[in-house]
């Protein structure tokens, strides 16, 4: 037990060793001078009042006292040595290492360790920092001692071919509740719940947290099959209890579960000894090596440092709505895969809300505390009070009774209804009351799976241990180098379960949660499946929350028949059984209630089916649309796009159209629309509109060459779209107000222009057309360029989400672009705008505009009809 | 070691108790306050009698009467190197805890004879030499105190059973 002693950092380095006062072999005591050294320093001398001072170098010789006690073994420094920094100076053989300490007393020599020693820089109490005994916190040991004890433990376990198993109590192997209703049901054989609560054990705790909870009865329901489970498991594992309950509670439960104290012995640790009410840590019990320790617990978030060793058990919920009476100060569970029980006690909601509001406040703090690994005393106090309140509430409110009453009421109503429907033909009043429903169902089989897993794990561990030992050729009984890490083996076993699966979650987690950090996400990954943020072609499973499935992912998955859409329960069962459970009973087949969504979905899926072959990483949507344009009646196309977007806006889920290839660099479906050629769409729209509106024109000009006609129609179309904009979308937010005003002015001019273009004075019109025709090539190309430029700028300003403005702006701009260039034409056409004609033209245009709009509406209706037929 | 110790204490009495049996009340209150407490480095086990109850003095402000009481009490002061009998409370791989009256003491494995080993597989866990000596919860042991520490109202001790006539007491 030699200890090397350093000089310490408090000396005035550099120093010179003057004399060593002790020689090797001498006994030295604490605070006894063992050497003298000298150091140089500057001293101010002279008359400080008159300011005549100067520095003089001084050399001072001082003694250095030993911080340690024992026999001096050897010096590590020499007389006359010049030392510039802290360095080891001597080795001392201590009589006692002080590495077991009980309440500040050395457990070996009985000395008081709390004595302050001015020669030493560290306190002796720091030599035994580790607390590793189950039922004591004041017994602390040093690192070496801890290692020795743990090796002893491992040796023993290896010899008996066992492992350590740390068992949580609440909701893992038992469920506790203090609702007095349970006791009443137990005494009342006629109660429908009597069978279920018959074997519920109970005990009274004296140290209840408050006056009301004092002397109350705790009712302990053991998980079905627990006795056999523990008995069989204890042949392979040494069992420890690790609970968040109080010491008295833990011991009482241990007594209930294990009356002979054969299973757990005194290996029970509770929150009183844990030193932290938020987290559990294996290091508290196994400070050196957790290679042979397995945990079973229903919560994984309380084991932040020991996840690899944890087998997560699905929580046992026998007393519905009670939860874990000892963990109300823990943050709310985030890992519930099974739907939470809807009924939480009648008439209790409001109170509950208050409590929850309080809890929410503490929730974040508790989470933080878990992260930091330390706790805030005030917060702890507050939460313990909260827990007390909740317990009192349970005592007073009797949630179970309420639940049963509610069930009874429902039964009664159902019965009444049935009696009424049968119309008294079957008089059941004489027969005994029918079987009443009961709140408590005892139908849990988690322990069977758990036992299987533990068996598998045990076998795998010792198989590997034997293999390693073989390889090392060790004849000795025990070789610690050959001890494999059970955490790694567990990981390996688990990761085989869902290997190769690529899973997407939908509606399971809140939106703002990082799926890779979430409890469920970690679970999925620990079982070897890949977690994906969105649907891609290689995804195999979509796990949906049956209550509120995410629309977009569901739609995307429905398009691909190979993706299995399953409920959360499938995932829960996979986790529980450690096997890829057959999906068939879990398939999610319900159609969405929202007709619009269905309609939209079909439409998209049609388009998608066609272009899955020539799918490209990006621009997919952009490609998809034009493709569809060709397929669908061309006249319907433009309106169709608009409609789709409107639908989208109507959806609750704004990104209902988010394509699956998000990670391929496409943030939004609107990006597709950005690349979409709105000019083309406009053209087609206009073509369609023009075909209806100016029939006579077309008739006339049909025989003429195509380009000018199109050009002309282009103009009219831009006018149309312009007028359309001002007419139907005046309420929608457009660009800047000034722009709007400008636009309307343009439209007015367009109006006039339009009237000329389509109206009576054939000759004038012809002339105008001719004029325009001559000018058209230049402006039209200009326009194209202009529009393209516009698009470039708008693309940047368009929001990535379909806020419904991007396309409008585009449209308006193209419209504006068209009219602007037309304006320049109109300057030449001035001679046609004679004042005499003006009034007449105006009236004419009005009529025509109405016609156009009516036709447009008709076309839209037609298109919808078509699509409905298709869907 | 037990002592008969003469002690003095100031006892206050509420005015509502003033009357002819005041001295009786003072004694009762004294017993209630003092018996079973740890006063620094000894425990007050029992009060034998009170031999001097002073005249009461009314405390200004509160109206309570203060009596200075001289009394004789049996006190127990554990000493280093004292040998005492204790009952084992818990056993763990590092040693065992025992209770000697009000005093909690710990005996570590270093201070247990080498042939007595910890056996975790026994229920309950025990220290045993696989022969006649079994130290488990509830066993009576004779322990020598080798270290003592006191804090206000509390005392702890380190004991050893490494020595002649120490250790397990056969009934």
From TrEMBL, chain A:
Record-given protein name: RNA polymerase II subunit A C-terminal domain phosphatase
Stored Gene3D superfamilies: 2.40.50.100, BRCT domain, HAD superfamily/HAD-like, S15/NS1, RNA-binding
Protein location: Nucleus
Segments of skewed composition (Acidic residues): 643-664, 694-718, 826-846
Reactions accelerated catalytically: O-phospho-L-threonyl-[protein] + H2O = L-threonyl-[protein] + phosphate; O-phospho-L-seryl-[protein] + H2O = L-seryl-[protein] + phosphate
EC code: 3.1.3.16
Domain FCP1 homology: 158-336
Disordered: annotated span: 406-439, 603-871
A Pfam family the protein falls into: BRCT
Residue stretches of biased makeup (Basic and acidic residues): 859-871
From TrEMBL, chain B:
UniProt record, GO biological process: positive regulation of nuclear-transcribed mRNA poly(A) tail shortening; positive regulation of translational initiation; transcription initiation at RNA polymerase II promoter
Gene3D superfamilies hit by this protein: Nucleic acid-binding proteins, RNA polymerase Rpb7-like, N-terminal domain
Keyword Transcription listed: yes
Domain S1 motif: 78-153
GO molecular function: single-stranded DNA binding; single-stranded RNA binding; translation initiation factor binding
Residue span, RNA polymerase Rpb7-like N-terminal domain: 8-63
Cellular component aspect of the GO annotation: P-body; RNA polymerase II, core complex
Domain of life: Eukaryota
CDD domains: RNAP_II_Rpb7_N (cd04329), S1_RNAPII_Rpb7 (cd04462)
Subcellular location as annotated: Nucleus
Keywords: DNA-directed RNA polymerase, Nucleus, Transcription
Any Pfam family: S1
Function, in words: DNA-dependent RNA polymerase which catalyzes the transcription of DNA into RNA using the four ribonucleoside triphosphates as substrates.
Family from the record: Belongs to the eukaryotic RPB7/RPC8 RNA polymerase subunit family.
Protein name, per record: DNA-directed RNA polymerase subunit
Species in which this protein is naturally found: Chaetomium thermophilum (strain DSM 1495 / CBS 144.50 / IMI 039719) (Thermochaetoides thermophila)
